[in-house]
Amino acid sequence: MFRDRKPKGFFYLNHMTVDGENNIITGVHPTSAAINDAVPFLGIVKEQKEKFGYKYVGADAGYYTAPIAKGLDKLGIKGAIAKRRGPKPKGKMSKLNFTYVEDWDVAMCPEGHSLEYKTTTRQGYREYHSKKEICCNCPKKEKCLYEKAEKRVIRFHVWDEQLRDIDRFTKNTELGKRIYKRRKETIERAFADLKELHGFRYARFRGLDGIKEQSYMSAAAYNMKKLARFLHVFLFFGQFIQNKWYFLISSKNFLFLSKEKGKPV
User: Which of 110, 195, 202, 223 is the most buried (most CB within 10 A)?
Assistant: First the structure.
């Protein structure tokens, strides 16, 4: 694995899904660490939808990509996903400082100048270029232009509208805010328990088949503990409710007897 801010070496990744209400692990999907996190995402979501009929999904910024946004839109699933700022040189303005104006099909810079559409790349990115004569006299040239560049180029994906739908759902709706807040309280807790209590910090076997076996066993142990706790709470409160209900019935039959007729009111 060779990633920024990650240790270098031979590793595996475990893509895990949990139920947002009870934090039960509903799926484990081990892969090689050489695979980007976003690659197996849509397949996992589709499988979970077919099994459980989920309509919403919460994920971190690593899954904030245009193909995922388009895929979720096709599946009819709303995503609450954090916005990823993306890499940029230190001290330079990012793409987030520019605004896309759909009616005019231009990108507006912080100084109010337009970047016009030029071409669409094979990867599906629409490029918008500024004008050299405007950038040369711009007061924010040092913060905007990269080294040796004479103009600024901004790229938006052709599926960028689906990304904006995710942004609106995550930031502007109470349900989206609640789902994303719930994400760190569930999936992160499940990973922590597996690593600290179930030996999931290290791979015990070699090869994906062995890692799948370890993942399933660890997830099964975690789920059994959760189910045992739920069962205990259910039995306790169920007995309490039965006793309370019996007490209420008894008190009604006893305390509210009609003195005239000797029958319950």
Answer: 223
